[in-house]
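Example with several molecule types.
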Amino acid sequence: MSGRGTVRRLAELTTEEAASAVQNSPLVIIPAGAFEQHGPGMALSTDLVRAEHVADRVAAEVDGLAVVGPSLPLGVSPHHIGFAGTITLSTTTFAAVVREYVDSLHRHGWRRVLVVTGHGGNNASLTTVAQDLLVSHPDLEFAWTPVTALAAEAVAGMGVGEVHGHSGEAETAQMLFLAPHLVHPDRLVAGTTSLAELDPTARLSRRGGHPTLTLRYDRLSATGVLGDPRRATAADGESIVDAVVRRIAEFVRAWPTA
Amino acid sequence: MSGRGTVRRLAELTTEEAASAVQNSPLVIIPAGAFEQHGPGMALSTDLVRAEHVADRVAAEVDGLAVVGPSLPLGVSPHHIGFAGTITLSTTTFAAVVREYVDSLHRHGWRRVLVVTGHGGNNASLTTVAQDLLVSHPDLEFAWTPVTALAAEAVAGMGVGEVHGHSGEAETAQMLFLAPHLVHPDRLVAGTTSLAELDPTARLSRRGGHPTLTLRYDRLSATGVLGDPRRATAADGESIVDAVVRRIAEFVRAWPTA
Amino acid sequence: MSGRGTVRRLAELTTEEAASAVQNSPLVIIPAGAFEQHGPGMALSTDLVRAEHVADRVAAEVDGLAVVGPSLPLGVSPHHIGFAGTITLSTTTFAAVVREYVDSLHRHGWRRVLVVTGHGGNNASLTTVAQDLLVSHPDLEFAWTPVTALAAEAVAGMGVGEVHGHSGEAETAQMLFLAPHLVHPDRLVAGTTSLAELDPTARLSRRGGHPTLTLRYDRLSATGVLGDPRRATAADGESIVDAVVRRIAEFVRAWPTA
Amino acid sequence: MSGRGTVRRLAELTTEEAASAVQNSPLVIIPAGAFEQHGPGMALSTDLVRAEHVADRVAAEVDGLAVVGPSLPLGVSPHHIGFAGTITLSTTTFAAVVREYVDSLHRHGWRRVLVVTGHGGNNASLTTVAQDLLVSHPDLEFAWTPVTALAAEAVAGMGVGEVHGHSGEAETAQMLFLAPHLVHPDRLVAGTTSLAELDPTARLSRRGGHPTLTLRYDRLSATGVLGDPRRATAADGESIVDAVVRRIAEFVRAWPTA
Amino acid sequence: MSGRGTVRRLAELTTEEAASAVQNSPLVIIPAGAFEQHGPGMALSTDLVRAEHVADRVAAEVDGLAVVGPSLPLGVSPHHIGFAGTITLSTTTFAAVVREYVDSLHRHGWRRVLVVTGHGGNNASLTTVAQDLLVSHPDLEFAWTPVTALAAEAVAGMGVGEVHGHSGEAETAQMLFLAPHLVHPDRLVAGTTSLAELDPTARLSRRGGHPTLTLRYDRLSATGVLGDPRRATAADGESIVDAVVRRIAEFVRAWPTA
Amino acid sequence: MSGRGTVRRLAELTTEEAASAVQNSPLVIIPAGAFEQHGPGMALSTDLVRAEHVADRVAAEVDGLAVVGPSLPLGVSPHHIGFAGTITLSTTTFAAVVREYVDSLHRHGWRRVLVVTGHGGNNASLTTVAQDLLVSHPDLEFAWTPVTALAAEAVAGMGVGEVHGHSGEAETAQMLFLAPHLVHPDRLVAGTTSLAELDPTARLSRRGGHPTLTLRYDRLSATGVLGDPRRATAADGESIVDAVVRRIAEFVRAWPTA
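Resulting structure tokens for the full complex:
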């Protein structure tokens, strides 16, 4: 699936192979998605699909150093609940799932875990898990990373507009590259692309930096889309994915094992 | 993947298609697995793989009546935690995930949900969810079903021994039929096959019916296997899967919608 | 109360006697009930009354091997909440009570606990407790058992109809034998006895086996009764109770202590 | 059991009688106990036994105005966990049980609930339940009361010493009057009776009023007894119980219904 | 701030000074308030202000023996939620905060903690924390105390009426002495002062002793005031505060340290 | 305290004034701190002190538009628990406190809340609260902001080194300006200032951007300090605070009220 080294997925291993992996592959990479609207042109599973592809490619890049754990298909998506098909966990439940998942890995001997989340709505909960683990599992090292945010340069190179993001240029490009069967090019429509389209509160919430004001997406875009996904190409997607994988793989190789 | 009718998976739908599905496909089928040891010859994801295949085939059988929701890859597996690679949720967290999943579906308008669990360890938690939903969501109808248990006749026809079950004849047969790449025929070994191999307490726990005494699997089998998976054939697997799918599909068709 | 051996109830012991019991009576039997409607002819406490009598009789049968712990009068009864007088705990709270109860026994040195539940609605929660204890208290052995289900033959011998169960032939018979002052023979009425009386969804929910669909009892029976309690006799009740006690006592005697 | 008016116990009613009771008996009285050590001479169930007797007698006194609900046999007893046989719930779980019990009564139409607790260790949790109900069930009136504390005069008349209380003069007297079969007069021993027997911290914790310092009972008394139970008589017990019942009954009669 | 000895407040210490304090000041005093209505004449922070002043004065009195920890500004105030500005925690959350606070102190080596609460609504939750700590932190000694209740004599000397208490004579006097800038003498009004002003249920709830019936304050007083705050003087406040501080300081000095 | 407009603090208002504030001051600003080590030269309360000053100054700037609510003195500080004096809440409890605080404000009619946190460790939990409120309180607008991060330019102008941050140049400067009595200039020491001082894992954790790896501070710095606080001046602090206040005030003024 990734074209380079070998990908070891825990889901495909036997328990005996898992026991070996604890010794030989000291890192577990967990792909985390969301199950939420991605506009009229992309599938509800978009975030997980991207996370899984990135996790696999990273594992291939660091050949043998990491195994890919089972995926987390459901994430924290209350801001999309107004759109049909979105399934969300509360922040508490999502964090509990990650905590118990990591605790199981810890029981088997793993001490390094990296979550790759295709969905920014999981970031805060992943951080709270990282914090609580400092007290409950002091000998564990837990890291997490978003996807698209690691390829800021490649995204900027796409010439995105004033408002962009969810289900826009960058996510669509990745999907055209990684899973084109989940994109309907003919149904892609421009979502909100300029601040002027927003009501004043929504506009305020889109300013960079802080203070941070979180709103539901039905207030930001009638279609749930921010940016113009029609401008996306598979080539852009490849650039983004390559940058993301390179950056994470470099991090993993730099992570001392013991 | 199923060869008969059309399978609609929510994961592949857009939000607009999901909105239509609420109207046209009044039932959501959720595949639930476990992530746990399946002996030296089968993959850790065995239970989810079987649940997903069954869910897809049922959806195909009832053509259009049901959509398949995103999978639950992690289940309740504390009894297997002694074997490397097993990842378990607590019963409370697993139930919370299902409850919030179902609540999201309910917000979009679905009123019928069926969980297909490839792992018997989830049965009790699914029942507690069903009970709590009677008070919290009185207008929802929630059903769940195991897999192998629906094909008792086909399994009996395989000539299983005194002790069989987890990772034994029936599960291996299903995997040989559905996902042979996740089975290593050369590594299959007979697990515990007779009561005489067990210590008296373990023997007591394997008696049919009640009282029920739950033990960890490291007490029941050195390899984690109950029964002799070497006796399994893909043809047996097909008989089991066919029986299971037929039984569930019949249930779904009998379930009034409205 | 039981007529055979000696019944030791923790409730009647002093702390010093309890300390001795930890040494001499390695098993604690916990009677669990529900507090719920039992139709127009039987008392709300029916399930606890039967569980307590069975627990006492088993303790008498295994003379000295077991002590009877304090009862759990409230169970999981959301399906009966539509009928006046029903008091229900959530599945989470019921499980917490059992877990903390067992943890206290464990602190005093007991390592074997058996819950006898007169109410099937508790089964799933008891199983979740058993599962969680495998991780939290690995040196404890926890078993549970229903009552009526252990006497399938005796019940079949009563000639029950197509639909029977809650507050029907078997439960009424037990009460006529064990606690006739809590039965009003003149008020006993036939409840739902045939599938034809049910709406299609309710009918589906009464099919044996799986999938399992749980409904509220106000949908199954106007009086809350399934079956015809007027056909019950005290003699039938004695047969049922004897079978149940024999079966559980045999289990207890087979349970190695140490 | 009480000798005066009629006692209606929910446990003995049918669901139809319970429906009538909602109309005719606007108050539910809940007896709450503890399951904990009461020294070498009294049973572990002492607190529940006294609460049940008092509840019954109050119900008889206010003839028809109140029904007695099912008992709560387990309470908050962490301070006694050092003594064999004590079973304790956490404060959180005990409060959850009471809250869900009361919520069930509220669903059936009751709006007045009184808990009679034979165990002072439940007082704080009962108060937290009362506080939370002000927000969650604003149309419910929830009261609770201890037992012995209502008979301060009668207890003072017994001539108790400097240190007295748990399993001492007053509790033993009540049991000699109400349930003499649960008292072993020959095993009654004097527990801690003077401050001089205590270490300085324990002495501090026994001063009346505030600040309040809570210690485990194994620090206060080798036998778990405070005071001298040998001085108790059934006649003293009758005086105490009469005073307690009179006081509660007067409260109940003064409680407006509607 | 207190005029006598030295007050050490953790909030003003560095981590190195805190490390020394663990050795030299074996007791931590925690001021706990509420944030709730105090009638038309006093500030919402009244309870915390009084608790902080008392804590500081006690620390000064026992010179060096105790440090004052950070304050708990929010308490358990559901009974005042009907009045604007009141902020309340649930009893569960308030207890969790105290438990985690104390656990942190325990990790640093402190073994004695005293909470001074200016708000009676916290009493029950503080007691539940004390109970749970007996099991979770058996080597910790945890005490708590109210404020005004320690000066019963001084309050009685003010000649209060039949109904008095919240935001009445005693609390206002303390504030006139400790924080006159938070009192508006011209806006002080008499609240409920006699039982006759109350409806029968409210009257019942104000009887001393037990049973205890908790009502919302909007049912007890239109202004939220019980008693006549206009009768308060700063001199009375000084008497009350002096008595309270003396009593607590005496307790602290009597508390053995190791 | 702020020198410009008027500061309205809820803590100083009466309930009647709070009722007016709901109408006239549609925004509540909540200062949130941490209680944690700030090296050998600054007080444990540093983060709250800064948050409170900023909140007050913002309220003064937007004259009348906002009220300042009571402070949250305890935050999420597990990474500092290795240093004496640090008091931490779990992420779950901190979030529960904020949620219940905001729910109380919502009951009184406020619909806009802004938390100013002086501690970055609270950021993730505040975000989870914001997410959960989208479902539970859809008509509420909840924002939060850190402090120092809003003055990136001013901080950069101080010429900070390769490693800086906690208790370093910027925080010390703010304290020298706002609360010099809580700084001990003579005890300020340089903490970790270059990556070379760190072990490889710690070095990895300090790289900007993602992946994010969270470590305990005892692994990052022997004194708990990152950067060189000796380089801080009150003038720098004033620049930082001015920039922060300006930025937040501008946000508040841009926030539509209704």
